[in-house]
From TrEMBL:
Secretion signal, residue range per the UniProt entry: 1-27
Keywords per UniProt: Signal
Cited PANTHER family: KUNITZ TRYPSIN INHIBITOR 2 (PTHR33107), KUNITZ TRYPSIN INHIBITOR 5 (PTHR33107:SF5)
Keyword Signal: yes
InterPro entries per UniProt: Kunitz_inhibitor_STI-like_sf (IPR011065), Prot_inh_Kunz-lg (IPR002160)
Name this polypeptide is given: Kunitz-type trypsin inhibitor
MF terms (GO), sorted A to Z: endopeptidase inhibitor activity
Keyword check for Hydrolase: no
UniProt cross-references to SUPFAM superfamilies, sorted A to Z: STI-like
Organism for this UniProt entry: Quillaja saponaria (Soap bark tree)
One Pfam family here: Kunitz_legume
Length: 119
């Protein structure tokens, strides 16, 4: 009787710990070489499968408009696009995790749009 009660209590406490503390089951985000992705380092965001579907992320227009620019994919798989860096909102870990709240910033040079004043 005591063994089943102890097992039930242990199971309940383990479940409570996992559901209230997501960092227990949080996974590291890995780069293409299997290394943990680090905060504030430059990375290319590339397709999982290389081929004619395109390359990395860049900025481009939408529906033939000049501005604003949107995040798009390079049409050629030979282009890596712009680099990005991840910044934590709140993190004590040196690496990006799968549930981390973060900001993503392009680190390459970007052409800006100039919006003309309306008459």
């Amino acid at each position: 009787m005591k063994t089943s009660s102890l097992a039930a209590l242990t199971t309940f406490l383990l479940f409570a710990l996992i559901t209230t503390n997501p960092s227990v089951v949080d996974a590291l985000v890995l780069d293409t070489e299997g290394n943990p992705v680090e905060w504030h380092r430059n990375y290319y965001v590339l397709p999982f499968v290389w081929g004619p579907l395109g390359g990395g992320l860049t900025l481009g227009s939408h529906n033939n408009s000049i501005c604003p620019l949107y995040v798009t994919q390079e049409p050629s798989d030979l282009s890596n696009g712009l680099t990005v860096a991840f910044s934590p909102r709140i993190s004590r870990l040196p690496f990006v995790t799968s549930s981390a709240e973060l900001s993503i910033k392009t680190t390459g040079s970007v052409t800006t749009c100039q919006v003309e004043a309306c008459p």
